[in-house]
Amino acid sequence: MKNYHTHTFRCKHAVGEVDDYVRAAAAKGITVLGFADHTPLPGHPWSSTRMSCGELPGYVQAIEKAQEEYPELTILKGMECEWAPELNSFYQDVLLGEYALDYLVLGCHFFYHQGSVFSSHLDIHDAEHLAAYTAYLIECMESGLFAFVAHPDLFGLTYLEWDQNTEAAAKDIISAAKELNLPLEINGHGLKNRPIDTPQGRRPAYPWLPFWELAAEQGVSVVVNSDAHHPGQVDQGLREGRALAERLGLKLAVLSHLGGG
Ligand SMILES: [Zn+2]
Ligand SMILES: [Zn+2]
């Protein structure tokens, strides 16, 4: 089993240090464990749910130490990133350059619309905001910095009913992923911890089934990750997510260029 999306205590809403996740992963038969904690953002206001720039060296050192101590596991250095054009050089020169991270994950938790910042978790209630999220997500995807897109269907948290707007959003995201050859993530955290009640009944907020049915039709590749925020969650949703992919005929992405095989 492989998981490319693991947090640590540094993001202020997860618990556990790198070593705690590695031990849990080894006990659960995970062979590739990628860390992708929330990136620090120099000069940005979105600081309450992520590490500070000062914590970056400690994060990287903790992963490198684990790589030495657990040679039987493939342990990778990644980061889950918001994107904005002014962050390109930080990602390229500092994270991928200076700190030699193995990969960056796109996690679009905020988006810009008409000069304001909106939360992808809280603010996508209508067609206008859904379209703005979609357009911004695709712009982020086009930056070329990312190995895959975390929870692209995050809008399922607040946009409750599948309709022509969600269908259009999904089709746009999926065709961009296909064009850019960028895998989309089936997110175990959403699958296991984010049930919501809708007029059609209870469902996981994300992954939202009709999104992935469309993804299967278009033949995009997917990656299944736990998005663990607690060491005990290191494998959450991995089996269920893979079963979902298999049932829908989605092909699993090969991320061997990250060192994971
Ligand atoms: Zn995320
Ligand atoms: Zn995450």
If you had to describe this structure to a student in words, what would you say it looks like?
The protein is of the alpha/beta class. It has one domain (2-258): TIM Barrel, CATH 3.20.20. It has helices spanning 18-27, 56-69, 88-98, 127-141, 164-180, 188-193, 209-218, 238-248, and strands at 2-6, 32-38, 74-81, 103-106, 110-113, 116-119, 148-149, 184-187, 195-198, 201-204, 221-225, 251-252. Helix 1 (18-27) links the parallel strand 1 (2-6) and strand 2 (32-38). The mean pLDDT is 95. The structure holds zinc ion (2 copies).
Helix-strand layout with pairing:
Blueprint (H helix, E strand, L loop, with lengths): L1 E5 L11 H10 L4 E7 L17 H14 L4 E8 L6 H11 L4 E4 L3 E4 L2 E4 L7 H15 L6 E2 L14 H17 L3 E4 H6 L1 E4 L2 E4 L4 H10 L2 E5 L12 H11 L2 E2 L9
Parallel strand pairs: 1-2, 2-3, 3-4, 4-7, 8-11, 11-12
Antiparallel strand pairs: 5-6, 9-10
Helix pairs in contact: 4-5, 5-7
